[in-house]
Each structure stands twice: as C-alpha cells, then as structure tokens.
Amino acid sequence: MIEESWKQEHSNVIAQTLQLQRDLQRRLVTEGCRHLSHLGINVPEGFDLTNSDLQRERSRQFLNQKQADIDTVSSALHMFTTEQRFIFEKILDACRTGKDALFDIRGRAGCGKTVLLNAIGAQTRLDGLLTAPSASTGFAALNQTFGLTFHRTFDVPVPDPRDDTVLQSKLKTGKRAELMANTRMCTIDEISSLHVAAFEAAARVDLLQHVTSSTRYEI
To answer: Domain 4-218, what fold?
Structure first.
C-alpha cells in the first residue's frame, strides 16, 4: 500500500494518473467498449467501465500499480550495470522525446534483459505514457509486468504450417489499433523465438512502418 506521506508529496502525479484513467474510460465507453481488456491492455481485475461502484477500487489499484512501478525502478537502478543504466536512459529518452526508434537488446541468459525491460516499462508508465509489453511465448510474457504474447498484442494469428497464406495483422483499424497508435513503447521479449511470418505480419501494419532505423546493445 502507498503511504499517506507519499500521496501528499506526489498529489500532482496521482491527479495526472486518475485524469488519464478517466479520459481513457470516457473514450472507451464512447466507442462501446466495456472493459479495457477488450483492447488488449493489461490492467488489474475489476476495471469494469460500466460499474460506477468500482470507481474507488479502480483508483486504489491504479495507485498500487504506481507504487509497484516505483519499487521496480528503484530496485533495478540499484543493481544495474553501467551498460544496463546506459540503455535504460537511452530508451527512456527516446520515449520521452517522442523519437521513433527500434532497439535490439542482446546478452547471455540471466544477464538481466527482462529485468531491464520491466524497469523501462515501469518508468515509462510513471511518465504517464502507455506501454505494450509482449513476448514470443506465453511463458516468456509471464516474466514481464502486464506481459502479453506478441500475437495478442499485435493481433496476429498463429502460423499454420499447412497453410502458406501470408499472415495479416488485424490491428490496422478498430479500437485496439487506436490504442496502439497512442502507445509510446512496445517491447518483444525472447524475439528470437518468434516466427518470422508473425513478425512480418506486424511489420506490415502502418503503426510500425515509420520505424526505419535500429540500435543494437549488448549487456
């Protein structure tokens, strides 16, 4: 739980978070969406947009998630290597300035790639920006805060070896497409395990076509 002293010192941050929540809820209700999960966004249970009795619970959960993100960033910064901190700051700078960029983070197993991704995602949310953490498999997605599979995030069907039809993402139009258009950072953990056809299907979506350069980091 968040201490009262923290709430008082960060009242402006809390107000911004709750306003973002209200704006998003208003937009979704207008478009006929009853629950944030219908758009593929990850939120705690109980975020039913049509039940005003849950407003207090929604606010409490948002605040608790903010504290969890603060703890995630604080813990990670204390154990980051010089390389991890450099990457952390580089990617956050791109998110904060609105720069379109693609980053490839590589390293041996257990070196802290997922920890780094979780910390970057947490700080991005603390900055008031939307994130879409994903992974090539459901198991890998469990290691990310609010993680979903790549196929769920980008609405890409699972490749069928018996069918040579080119995969198409359904994310070009609709409510989820609008949500993703306003998402500042998308992550794909364990991308080496992702079927190339699935990645190409997502790459053909207009939301990704404007990213033309990439930077590789080793940790």
So the answer is: Rossmann fold (3.40.50)
